[in-house]
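[worker-b] picked up task from shared queue
[worker-b] task type: protein-ligand structure
[worker-b] ligand name resolved to coenzyme A; SMILES cross-checked against name lookup, match
[worker-b] sequence length check passed
[worker-b] input payload:
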Amino acid sequence: MKPLVEPFGDGTVTLRLVEERDLRTILDWRNRDEARVWFKTSDKLSLDSHKRWYERYLAKDDDFFFLVEADGAPVGQCAIYDIDRIAKSAEIGRFLVAPDKAGNGYITRSCEELIRFGTRTLDLPYLFLEVMEENVRAIRVYEHCGFSEEGRSDGLIRMGLTRNDPR
Ligand SMILES: CC(C)(COP(=O)(O)OP(=O)(O)OC[C@H]1O[C@@H](n2cnc3c(N)ncnc32)[C@H](O)[C@@H]1OP(=O)(O)O)[C@@H](O)C(=O)NCCC(=O)NCCS
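[worker-b] inference finished, payload out:
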């Protein structure tokens, strides 16, 4: 069962858990050609399969999927998942900006908030992510937030961040 997470943010962006009413919006973002090519599963998804994925997600306690809002409107999404409470680590990802909201710093801010949530609220000092090596825009966001490359294989870069003294 999914634990409740209260919305959090930095005054510009608010991250709140994705709800069923958001699924159509985020699917439309995700299915755009210029967005889906950057995900490991890059096929277009149907609303039915997206809803089935969401049902499975709701049953998990190691996966938190956030809608990002600014000025009360949806501007993007991001997630922290595969939370390992023994190893004290998690992966972050599913970053996506709404088509007309790119370049406003919303995703950089969301990444910073997600890092704070992971390291401070969930007490996970080590976070990592995977990104395609051609995805320079995403890589810049991650580097800006403190991630650094740990390795590469099959066109993917693994980046990690250790924060033993959570800010
Ligand atoms: C990757 C992605 C999420 C980044 O979204 P974005 O809206 O461009 O992200 P941001 O605006 O936060 O940051 C990008 C730029 O805005 C700049 N920025 C940061 N804060 C800013 C602010 N307050 N005002 C204006 N610009 C700002 C950043 O410095 C960066 O600028 P740069 O292009 O000079 O490097 C987006 O390109 C996307 O959805 N891509 C498709 C999906 C994808 O690749 N997801 C990641 C899979 S690993």
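[worker-b] attaching auto-annotations
[worker-b] Helices lie at 23-30, 33-36, 47-58, 106-121, 136-144.
[worker-b] releasing lock
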